[in-house]
Amino acid sequence: MIRVTTASAQEIASIEEEQSTSSNELTRHTDHLSKVIIELDNAVESFQVEINS
């Protein structure tokens, strides 16, 4: 027999909240890394232009 209690529902809500927070942090880090990659790409391109000049 499966029994659902208020405590387990609260635990589930807590886990969902933690996962949401983790997901938001991951998205923030991914966005930051994307910006860093773009900046590095631009720096390499500028460096290559200077070498070719």
Folded structure, characterized:
This protein is mostly helical and 53 residues long. Helices cover 89% and strands 0% of the residues. It is rod-shaped, with a radius of gyration of 23 Å.
Radius of gyration: 23 Å
Mean pLDDT: 90
Oligomer: single chain
Tell me the fraction of residues in β-strands, as a range: under 5%
Summing up helix and strand content along with how strands pair, one would put the structural category as mainly alpha
Straight-line N-to-C gap: 77 Å
Order of helices and strands: H
pLDDT < 50 runs, ≥5 residues: none
Number of strands: 0
Residues in helices, as a percent range? over 70%
What's the helix count? 1
Principal-axes geometry comes out as: rod-shaped
Largest sheet: none
What's the layout of helices and strands?
Blueprint: H1 6-52
Q: What keyword list fits this structure?
A:
53 residues; mainly alpha; 1 helix; 0% strand; rod-shaped
Give a quick summary of the entry:
By secondary structure, this protein is mainly alpha-helical.
